[in-house]
Design brief:
By secondary structure, this protein is mainly β. It is 0% helix and 54% strand.
Length: 57
């Protein structure tokens, strides 16, 4: 499972290939809220766990 503050990459859907930070986790829904940075602002996006992968630093 994912952790709060973890850096992830979105692998599917309209935000595919965007990176972001896990802000909230909804285990009952199998989703996480990820803060994605574009247009110089962080935007919250709700993403299915299956469309997320950990970013390796």
């Amino acid at each position: 499972s994912f952790q709060l503050g973890e850096h992830v990459r979105i692998t599917g859907g309209p935000f595919a290939e965007f990176g972001g930070t896990v802000d909230e986790i909804y285990p009952d829904k199998g989703k996480a809220k990820v803060l994605v940075s574009f247009f110089n602002r962080e935007t919250p996006v709700e993403v299915d766990f299956l469309q997320l992968e950990r970013e390796i630093s």
